[in-house]
Amino acid sequence: MVAMEGAVGAWAWWLGLLFGAVPLLCLAVWHSTGAWYCAAFALKYRGHGSNGIRRRLPPGHMGVPFLGETLSLLWYFKLARRPDDFIGAKKSAYGSAAGMYRTHLFGSPSIIACSPAANKFVLQSPESFGIRWPVPELVGITSVVNVEGSSHARLRGFILAAINRPSSLQTIATVVQPRVVAALRTWADKGTIVAATEIKKVTFANICKMFISMEPSPLTDKIDRWFGDLLDGLRAYPFDFPGTASHGARKSRRKLDAIFREELEARKKVDRQCDDLMGGLMQMKDEQGKKLSNEEVVDNIVSLVIAGYESTTIAIMWAVYHLAKSPVVLAKLREENIAMSKSKGGSTSTSLMITHTDIPKMKYTAKVVEETIRMANIAPMVHRVANRDVEYRGYTIPKGWAVLVWLRSLHTDPNYYEDPLSFNPNRWDEPAKAGTYQVFGGGPRVCAGNMLARLQVTIILHHLCVGYEWELLNPDAEINYLPHPRPADGAAMAFRKLST
């Protein structure tokens, strides 16, 4: 009897521990990261700033030690496939909070900015917010996306001249179209394609031609794979040990460095100048007449290829995907583009090359392009860091904290776009509300290739609409949101020449 009572007592003790102490311990762990940073913040400021105003961190939750809210982010983006609920949950829990929340992501205490005003404040205050990539060396320490001040202004000016001014776009339109036309014929011959794969091939081939004068080959196939690894690592948690995406990205970055350095040295040995982006970077000089170093040229080529082909590939894929699901939109788009082709001497089902000066006449096509880019949300956020303590609407952004400008939250918010997840080019009959359209970022670092991206999407839509038709094989395929948004099957489709 005594033994039985002892056993019951032992069970009661363990059950009490399980249902009492363990939940308390889990709760303590759940709030420990936030408690640590809030205590450090309170100790630093002793409750008040120099102006006597009480300093406060934006509301939010900072997750578990070390990982922060990374698991929560992965849940919403990867498992639940509801990426907008990551920010939506914060809005529900803490209200608008001036459009800012505290969190812990990518290994750093962070502030999320997710309203038009808060995003604008961060993006247009370069003196207060510097660049902060989770792993800066992946995109290049000396590249245009990392450097600041006069170095950034000089590199950005060159890039704008090389790929975004009208004369450059006119040349690019001429260069890329033959490859696009040839690719579409090949797709029709295949009959069934995975759009994401095929679009990536033609876009990458054009970028290689424009940026480094490389034609498709086994080497460019390797370069393509290495860039794929690099992109996977850019948005992964920065664990650097074998088997992780970040580690694989670093290895691929070293391989890309070696290839582009070899190309640089080969050009220098024979004093070969090429009319491409790499050639232009090699000839760039600063105010003192000093040229870019090999490291600077390679860093910028890598960062520009990353920006130039993956984002455009995704945008084109989503355009084709949404048009397959929107027959009324496709019919109207086809009508405009066939009319453009006929005006240039083409037939009903044969497209002729369009020029950069033709594009402003294609009003409905422009609406389709903007709606595609809005819904694609290729870059859900951009990374900044507070260079100093910054006050914003009663909250303090501490010096050294990462600042994540959450662009996606604007483009999918029903307060700014009616039925935001529906594909509706007609919404662009009126301009977007001020500050709510930030697909290319904003401020002095707005994407330098924004017009190039629009040009490439417009060109392929023109040739698609005039000469081809397609249907999705799995119209209800699930959407993957990491590392980039795309249908799980890559938008597999039947593809054929347009019936006359």
UniProtKB/TrEMBL annotation:
Gene3D superfamilies: Cytochrome P450
Keyword Protein biosynthesis: no
One BP term from GO: sterol metabolic process
Protein name stated in the entry: Ent-kaurenoic acid oxidase
Top-rank taxon: Eukaryota
Metabolic or biological pathway, per its Swiss-Prot or TrEMBL entry: Plant hormone biosynthesis; Hormone biosynthesis
Positions that bind heme: 447
Family assignment from sequence similarity: Belongs to the cytochrome P450 family.
Cofactor entry: heme
Ranges annotated as spanning the membrane: 12-39
Keyword RNA-binding set for record: no
GO molecular-function term, one example from the UniProt record: iron ion binding
Record-linked Pfam families: p450 (PF00067)
UniProt keyword terms in alphabetical order: Heme, Iron, Membrane, Metal-binding, Monooxygenase, Oxidoreductase, Transmembrane, Transmembrane helix
